[in-house]
Design goal:
With 194 residues, the protein is an alpha+beta fold. Helix content is 31%, strand content 32%. It is globular and about 40 Å long.
Length: 194
Protein backbone atom coordinates (compact mmCIF):
# COMPACT_ATOMS: atom_id res chain seq x y z
CA UNK A 1 0.00 0.00 0.00
CA UNK A 2 1.47 3.31 -1.08
CA UNK A 3 0.23 5.73 1.55
CA UNK A 4 2.06 8.76 0.24
CA UNK A 5 0.10 12.00 0.60
CA UNK A 6 -2.24 12.40 -2.36
CA UNK A 7 -4.92 14.83 -3.55
CA UNK A 8 -8.35 13.24 -4.09
CA UNK A 9 -10.54 15.38 -6.29
CA UNK A 10 -14.24 15.25 -7.12
CA UNK A 11 -16.71 17.68 -8.64
CA UNK A 12 -17.58 19.45 -5.39
CA UNK A 13 -14.72 18.74 -3.00
CA UNK A 14 -10.99 18.25 -2.98
CA UNK A 15 -9.25 16.27 -0.24
CA UNK A 16 -5.75 17.63 0.15
CA UNK A 17 -2.98 16.41 2.44
CA UNK A 18 -3.42 18.08 5.82
CA UNK A 19 -0.70 20.64 6.52
CA UNK A 20 0.18 22.95 9.40
CA UNK A 21 -0.84 25.81 7.10
CA UNK A 22 -4.49 24.70 7.37
CA UNK A 23 -4.53 25.85 11.01
CA UNK A 24 -6.36 29.17 10.58
CA UNK A 25 -8.94 27.73 8.18
CA UNK A 26 -9.65 24.79 10.48
CA UNK A 27 -9.97 27.06 13.50
CA UNK A 28 -12.51 29.13 11.57
CA UNK A 29 -14.82 26.12 11.12
CA UNK A 30 -13.77 23.62 13.77
CA UNK A 31 -13.92 25.12 17.25
CA UNK A 32 -17.66 24.48 17.71
CA UNK A 33 -18.08 22.23 20.79
CA UNK A 34 -20.95 20.34 19.09
CA UNK A 35 -18.51 18.99 16.50
CA UNK A 36 -16.60 17.13 19.20
CA UNK A 37 -19.55 15.81 21.22
CA UNK A 38 -19.06 12.19 20.16
CA UNK A 39 -15.28 12.10 19.78
CA UNK A 40 -12.61 10.93 22.18
CA UNK A 41 -10.81 14.28 22.10
CA UNK A 42 -12.16 17.79 22.32
CA UNK A 43 -10.92 20.63 20.14
CA UNK A 44 -12.26 23.77 21.79
CA UNK A 45 -9.42 26.26 21.39
CA UNK A 46 -6.75 27.28 18.88
CA UNK A 47 -4.20 25.47 21.06
CA UNK A 48 -6.25 22.27 20.91
CA UNK A 49 -6.59 22.60 17.12
CA UNK A 50 -2.81 23.04 16.81
CA UNK A 51 -2.32 19.88 18.90
CA UNK A 52 -4.90 18.03 16.76
CA UNK A 53 -3.11 18.97 13.53
CA UNK A 54 0.35 18.27 14.98
CA UNK A 55 -0.72 14.80 16.14
CA UNK A 56 -2.22 13.98 12.73
CA UNK A 57 1.02 15.07 11.03
CA UNK A 58 3.14 12.99 13.46
CA UNK A 59 0.96 9.96 12.72
CA UNK A 60 1.37 10.56 8.98
CA UNK A 61 5.17 10.80 9.37
CA UNK A 62 5.10 7.49 11.25
CA UNK A 63 3.02 5.83 8.50
CA UNK A 64 0.07 5.37 10.85
CA UNK A 65 -2.37 7.84 9.27
CA UNK A 66 -3.07 9.80 6.13
CA UNK A 67 -4.99 12.96 7.12
CA UNK A 68 -6.80 15.22 4.67
CA UNK A 69 -8.25 18.71 4.80
CA UNK A 70 -11.61 18.78 3.00
CA UNK A 71 -11.92 21.77 0.65
CA UNK A 72 -15.18 22.94 -0.92
CA UNK A 73 -14.14 23.55 -4.53
CA UNK A 74 -16.69 26.26 -5.37
CA UNK A 75 -15.48 28.57 -2.61
CA UNK A 76 -12.00 27.21 -1.90
CA UNK A 77 -13.00 27.00 1.77
CA UNK A 78 -11.50 24.36 4.05
CA UNK A 79 -14.63 22.87 5.63
CA UNK A 80 -13.24 20.03 7.76
CA UNK A 81 -11.02 16.99 7.96
CA UNK A 82 -11.02 13.25 7.37
CA UNK A 83 -8.30 10.61 7.41
CA UNK A 84 -7.15 7.08 6.97
CA UNK A 85 -5.92 5.53 10.19
CA UNK A 86 -5.48 2.14 11.86
CA UNK A 87 -3.50 1.23 8.76
CA UNK A 88 -2.53 -2.43 8.44
CA UNK A 89 -0.82 -2.81 5.03
CA UNK A 90 -0.03 -6.46 5.64
CA UNK A 91 -3.77 -7.14 5.92
CA UNK A 92 -4.81 -4.69 3.17
CA UNK A 93 -6.93 -2.90 5.75
CA UNK A 94 -7.39 0.61 7.06
CA UNK A 95 -9.99 2.74 8.80
CA UNK A 96 -11.69 5.82 7.39
CA UNK A 97 -12.76 8.35 9.96
CA UNK A 98 -11.72 11.16 12.27
CA UNK A 99 -14.14 13.05 10.04
CA UNK A 100 -15.73 16.38 10.91
CA UNK A 101 -17.13 19.39 9.07
CA UNK A 102 -18.04 22.87 10.19
CA UNK A 103 -21.74 23.18 11.07
CA UNK A 104 -22.59 24.94 7.80
CA UNK A 105 -21.34 21.95 5.78
CA UNK A 106 -22.87 19.11 7.78
CA UNK A 107 -25.54 16.86 6.36
CA UNK A 108 -25.63 16.57 2.58
CA UNK A 109 -22.79 19.08 2.01
CA UNK A 110 -19.37 17.58 1.34
CA UNK A 111 -19.94 14.28 3.12
CA UNK A 112 -20.98 12.02 0.20
CA UNK A 113 -17.99 13.08 -1.92
CA UNK A 114 -15.59 13.18 1.02
CA UNK A 115 -16.64 9.60 1.78
CA UNK A 116 -16.65 8.38 -1.81
CA UNK A 117 -13.23 9.73 -2.80
CA UNK A 118 -11.19 8.03 -0.04
CA UNK A 119 -13.19 4.80 -0.37
CA UNK A 120 -12.56 4.75 -4.13
CA UNK A 121 -8.86 5.39 -3.50
CA UNK A 122 -8.69 2.71 -0.81
CA UNK A 123 -10.28 -0.02 -2.91
CA UNK A 124 -9.31 0.95 -6.47
CA UNK A 125 -5.80 2.32 -5.94
CA UNK A 126 -4.47 0.99 -2.63
CA UNK A 127 -5.97 -2.46 -3.12
CA UNK A 128 -7.68 -2.63 0.28
CA UNK A 129 -9.89 -5.60 1.00
CA UNK A 130 -11.44 -3.97 4.09
CA UNK A 131 -12.19 -0.43 5.23
CA UNK A 132 -13.46 0.08 8.77
CA UNK A 133 -15.61 2.91 10.09
CA UNK A 134 -16.41 3.53 13.75
CA UNK A 135 -18.63 5.85 15.73
CA UNK A 136 -19.92 6.39 19.24
CA UNK A 137 -22.84 4.08 20.00
CA UNK A 138 -24.82 7.18 21.05
CA UNK A 139 -24.20 9.01 17.76
CA UNK A 140 -27.41 8.02 15.95
CA UNK A 141 -26.84 10.47 13.08
CA UNK A 142 -23.42 9.06 12.26
CA UNK A 143 -24.66 5.47 12.56
CA UNK A 144 -27.49 6.17 10.09
CA UNK A 145 -25.08 7.86 7.68
CA UNK A 146 -22.62 4.96 7.75
CA UNK A 147 -25.39 2.42 7.21
CA UNK A 148 -26.79 4.67 4.47
CA UNK A 149 -23.67 4.29 2.34
CA UNK A 150 -23.97 0.51 2.55
CA UNK A 151 -21.50 -0.36 5.31
CA UNK A 152 -22.18 -3.43 7.45
CA UNK A 153 -22.56 -3.00 11.19
CA UNK A 154 -20.38 -5.65 12.80
CA UNK A 155 -20.92 -5.04 16.48
CA UNK A 156 -20.18 -2.90 19.49
CA UNK A 157 -16.76 -2.55 21.06
CA UNK A 158 -17.85 -2.23 24.67
CA UNK A 159 -16.11 0.26 26.96
CA UNK A 160 -13.78 1.03 24.08
CA UNK A 161 -12.58 4.62 24.61
CA UNK A 162 -12.29 7.01 27.52
CA UNK A 163 -13.27 10.41 26.15
CA UNK A 164 -11.74 13.73 27.17
CA UNK A 165 -14.74 14.28 29.47
CA UNK A 166 -14.07 10.98 31.25
CA UNK A 167 -17.11 9.23 29.76
CA UNK A 168 -16.37 5.64 28.78
CA UNK A 169 -17.59 5.22 25.23
CA UNK A 170 -18.94 2.15 23.51
CA UNK A 171 -17.99 2.20 19.82
CA UNK A 172 -19.95 0.71 16.91
CA UNK A 173 -17.74 -0.98 14.31
CA UNK A 174 -18.75 -1.02 10.64
CA UNK A 175 -16.95 -2.29 7.58
CA UNK A 176 -17.00 -2.22 3.82
CA UNK A 177 -15.11 -5.10 2.23
CA UNK A 178 -13.93 -5.47 -1.33
CA UNK A 179 -16.95 -7.65 -2.21
CA UNK A 180 -19.27 -4.86 -0.97
CA UNK A 181 -17.45 -2.07 -2.78
CA UNK A 182 -19.20 -2.31 -6.19
CA UNK A 183 -22.64 -1.85 -4.57
CA UNK A 184 -21.40 0.85 -2.17
CA UNK A 185 -19.74 2.62 -5.09
CA UNK A 186 -22.96 2.60 -7.14
CA UNK A 187 -24.94 3.90 -4.17
CA UNK A 188 -22.50 6.76 -3.52
CA UNK A 189 -22.18 7.66 -7.20
CA UNK A 190 -25.98 7.86 -7.47
CA UNK A 191 -26.05 10.25 -4.49
CA UNK A 192 -23.33 12.37 -6.08
CA UNK A 193 -25.33 12.66 -9.31
CA UNK A 194 -28.37 14.09 -7.44
Amino acid sequence: MDLSPVVLEGQRVRLVPLEAGHFDALCAVGLDPDLWRWTAGHVDSPEAMRAYIDKALRLRAAGEALPFAVVEKASGTVVGCTRYGAIAPEHLRLALGWTWYGARWQGAGPNPAATYLPLRHAFDVLGCIRVELKTDVLNARSRRAILGIGATEEGVLRRHIVTSTGRVRDTVLFSIVDHDWPDVRRRLEARLRR
